[in-house]
Amino acid sequence: MADLPAILGGPPVRHNRSWPEWPQLGDAERELLSSTLESGRWSSARGHLAADFANEFAAFQGARHGLPLVNGSCSLEVALAACGIGSGDEVLVPGLTFVTTATAVLAVNAIPIFVDVEPDSLCLDVGAAEAAVSDRTRAVIPVHLAGRPCDLDALGDLCERHGLAMIEDCAHAHGSRWRERGVGSFGSFGSFSFQQGKLITAGEGGALITDDEELRERAWSYANCGRIEGGHRYDHVNYGINLRMTEWQGAVLQAQLRRLPEQNRIREERAALLDAELTQIPGLRPQSGDARISGHGRYGYAFDYDPAEFSGLPTSGLIAALRHEGILAGESYPSLNTLRVFREARFGKRLPEGVPLPDYASVRLPNAEHAAAHSVWLDHRMLLAEPDEVFDVVRALMRIRERSRAVKLRTSKAVTSAGRIFRRYRRA
């Protein structure tokens, strides 16, 4: 294995240079926040900014209705509840995603069933999902990982054949499009996050989009303490909790949305440069595309890494070396089946007695587990930099590979020399 301290020697590729800041903000955010402050209407129950933003964002993604919510994790719970998913139902979830894609299923007392991902796209393997369908399966949550849309054609066919609700997890996919249509508009719901690192952000926040008026009404009731929209404030008709977005968040997100199309255009251009260059470096394989993807909201830039081409340098070593070079690199999500919350069933009495639970500790997801161990993610901030700066990523990776191989060569020569001395000593 290559020696990491030796690889880290010398000044970094990016010396005294910074990447674009995130989040980005300007006068639009300041003016909307100031007017919200002065209005005294800080709750979305009394104002209109959050609702206006959600509807504007829904239209941007190609859906009729938007519902503003407190965050993108709760929005999945709301969608599941509105679709009638509940006690003992099964929901198919890709193995490579943030944990709340699965814990949202537990929140409505349903059972997440982990499905492997495709090795190239890192998105849900529709064939594996088909094999996982049982007579208790009620929904599937495809995740558009790193903004890369899943195969929505095949998923739509799967859901239609088996009568499943499709709830798209679009937490990474603001502006992503499949066949010229925004993701999130294909299923029963599309769920979005506006957490600090996302492509538009208010620090926290979430939204659901849908074309179905009845589903929107159910979701609104669940997120507004069980009320009926337009009814008396103390008339609680259904079970629900308060999951409303604030007007502060709505104000910031309105301004953020105005910047998104141009930012996404720049990110896609820079990502195309990286795709062309990284495929030329042995041991690196960027996340795959698809001719049907007509827009890729780049929450991150992900690529597969083969340590053998870098003299055995582990993924963690590559990430450390990239950070030394000034590159904003990070690790992948772990595969869900490896998390203790599932392996040890550490989620309390979420499910009714007698409901069979998967033995998560015995679940194997080869592609998700490989991706978790061998994927490197680059921060989307870097894709907003000038092209020459983005090429610093390429320069850093080439430099690390060359150094790793040089370290291996020196080590090999030292071992060979020591062997000769040892053999001379034995003969003497």
How would you describe what is shown here?
The chain has 428 residues and is an alpha/beta fold. It has a domain at 27-259: Type I PLP-dependent aspartate aminotransferase-like (Major domain) (Aspartate Aminotransferase, domain 2). The chain is built from 13 helices and 14 strands. The chain has a seven-stranded mixed beta sheet with strand order 1-9-8-5-4-2-3, with helices on both faces. A four-stranded antiparallel beta sheet has the order 10-12-14-13. β4 (137-140), α7 (152-162) and β5 (165-169) form a beta-alpha-beta unit. α4 packs across α5, α4 (72-82) packs across α8 (213-223) and α9 crosses α13 (387-427). The longest helix is centred in the last third of the chain and has 41 residues, at 387-427. The radius of gyration is 24 Å and the shape is globular. Residues 412-428 have low confidence and may be disordered.
Radius of gyration: 24 Å
Helix count from the secondary structure assignment:
13
CATH architecture of the domain at 27-259: 3-Layer(aba) Sandwich
What class would the helix/strand composition place it in? alpha/beta
Read across the widest sheet, the strand sequence of neighbours is 1-9-8-5-4-2-3
The global form is globular
> Span from first to last CA?
33 Å
CATH-defined fold name of the domain at 27-259: Aspartate Aminotransferase, domain 2
Count of beta strands? 14
What fraction strand? 5-15%
In the CATH hierarchy, what is the class of the domain at 27-259? Answer: Alpha Beta
Helical amount among residues, as a percent range?
A: 40-55%
Major sheet characteristics: 7 strands, mixed
**Unreliable runs, pLDDT <50, ≥5 residues?**
412-428
Please provide the ordered H/E string of secondary-structure elements. Answer: HHHEHEHEHEHEEEEEHHEEEHEHHEH
Q: What value does the average pLDDT take? A: 93
The named CATH superfamily of the domain at 27-259? Type I PLP-dependent aspartate aminotransferase-like (Major domain)
